[in-house]
Amino acid sequence: MDLIHKFLNLVAPTFTFFSFVFLLPPFYFFNFFLSILRSVFSENVAGKVIVITGASSGIGEHLAYEYGRRGARLALTARREKSLQEIADRARDLGSPDVIVIRADVSKVDDCRRLVEETVNHFGRLDHLVNNAGINTVCMFEDAPPDMSLFRAIMDTNFWGSVYTTRFAVPHLKNSKGKIVVMSSAASWMNDPRTSVYNASKAALTAFFDTLRIELGSEVKITIVTPGFIESEITQGKFLQRDGNMEVQQDMRDVQVSSIPVASASGCAQAIVNSASKGDRYLTQPSWFRVTYLWKMFFPELVEWGYILSHFSRPGAPHQQAPSKKILDFTGLKNVIYPSSIQSPEIKTD
Questions:
Q1: Which of 171, 198, 210, 294 is at a distance of 20 to 30 A from 20, taking alpha carbons?
Q2: Active site residues
Q3: pLDDT at 304 over 90
Q4: Is 183 helix (H, G, I), strand (E, B) or coil?
Q5: 214 C-beta neighbours (distance < 10 Å), count
Q6: Are the C-beta atoms of residues 127 and 221 closer than 8 Å to each other?
Q7: Which residues, 6+ apart, have CB-to-CB distance to 128 below 8 Å?
Q8: What does the domain layout of the chain look like in residue ranges?
Q9: Domain 39-343 has CATH 3.40.50.720
Q10: What are the tens digits of pLDDT across the range 87-114?
Q11: What residues pair up with 55 in beta bridges, in sequence order?
Q12: Is the dihedral of CA 51, 53, 55, 58 positive or negative?
């Protein structure tokens, strides 16, 4: 057995190199041709039934508006019912023929079962499931509560919330030859410090739904979205605290986001609906953020050193004195690269 592995250690890299040389050009040409066909024959979502989790703000809110403009019927779900009702009213005004609101917490398996059942009972079908609900915390791993409750809450919402909802939706999506949209993140490969479990939850989503794509085959198409920094309550600085409450910490947001431009939620939502309608496997928005994957793949040490140098202050100094925030404050870039919606500390409370 050892001889076999020694042989493969020699042969596999060489075989892979020449395979890439000969296969990559025709492979990319073929994919380019397919992308043109998918654009021409993109799905018309008018009349289709769409479930959007985490629809009370940010990307989820703007996905409701984008699907609404295209005439889709919507089931909007989140924990804040009043906000959902306001968003539902606007989605109707924009063109959605029917919108229902379902108050649910996706970290609870029974709520996930109920939101799918209520949607199908009302509309009679399900065409797109958009797993968008997510929360974040900014916390060094060693500073977390010993019972890990802070980190479990992140995983329960970000990962298990999508898994639970998908489990109950899959039979209906098979019937309609429907689609799943998964809100992962570029954080699944760009591992910002202080967000270790958030990053892990997004990487877990990618791994899970990549596997599920194989299991479901052509019956249900899956689009995995990996946004960079997008206008939302997270980039506004809303983080889960040690006591389980959500608070806005814009100084820590500035440390984490620093001078990276934050893209609009409306533009991101439009790109997501276009991508899902075409049946794309992956979408990174804004598209330039894909280059960070290459940096992480080919220069991991440089990426890690960059984070250490920029995201941490000198020993004994507050985290808010990190160079990443000082650069933002010194240059005054915040007013240029941050949308006005995330510059205010005021967030939705109901």
A1: 210
A2: 198
A3: yes
A4: strand
A5: 8
A6: no
A7: 45, 48, 49, 50, 51, 67, 72, 178, 179, 180, 181, 276
A8: 39-343
A9: yes
A10: 999 999 999 999 999 999 999 999 999 9
A11: none
A12: negative
